[in-house]
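User: I'll paste a sequence; please echo it back and then give the predicted structure.

Assistant: Echoing your sequence first, then the prediction.
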Amino acid sequence: MKNFFSVIIIFVILLVMGGYVYVQKQDVAQREEISKNLSKVRRNFASRARDAINQEDGAEYLRNIKAALKSYDEELDRTVYAKNPEARDIESYTKLVEEEFEKGSVDEGQRKRMLERHKIVRKAYDILKGQDWRPVLTAKGKGDTRLDIYNLQRTTDPNGAPLLQGDFFFWGLEDSTDVSWGDIITRIWKVEKEMVKEGRKKVEKDVEKVLGRVEGSSEPYIIITSPHKNIDFFPSFVSIGTIRLAVLPAESVKIDMELTYSTRRGGGGEVESVLKWEKLDVPPGWRLSDGQEWDADEVEATEEEIAGKDPNETEDG
């Protein structure tokens, strides 16, 4: 009788173990299928995004990239996660971090940094998925790249100094792209009343004059080139982050801005890009308030040098 019960117990254990192994194999197969389909859908999106960002017209670009994002999101539901919708868990990374923290694999400082990074990625993902974002500044670079800066606002650094801070989508930059950052050059314009000759008489008119020039590095304050490591179904072909710019004087009315960077992919050569924005109107939120001092380094230069003109050129060019 004892042997009979032993056989039953062993048989039950074998059944349980067999079931466990089967479930494990099934989970592995499902994960492999999801990974395979996800890679395919991400490649399809990258192709559509590449076409969209190379549009010269800003409105046409925005329509196409939003259409590509919408199609990508639908394809995820239809193709990648149709059998396992619960696998599309946007907070799976945070759960993994908390598990690792409980086991002691990561310390409190690492946990905080990892969760902060995820918060940035989650915010960017929600904005892209929401379809209602619009860049404040957008420009097409070379080498299948494009920069979209959105939500540009005045804020302060840890020392209380005012600055402009904006979030961005940098299309065409991924973790496999080598980037060399260049400069940001901002020319600032003001308006003054002047007597201008008009026909036989002089009349008072508003005249644009160069107020100053600011130079700095184009390297972002924060850049995340692999957001898919936090949200595995994050769209491909894009980096996210935060850029900081100099706040503008209270009397500024327009700016010209140039931003330079170089990219290299695989064994290819280096491709340099120069993004330009000319005579942009300056919103009140980008300027200091009246009475606030513009704290910038002073450099002696002629008005022509500040404006980026060749002093040897004649008025007629």
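The domain at 136-292 is CATH 2.60.40 (Immunoglobulin-like). The chain has five helices and nine strands.
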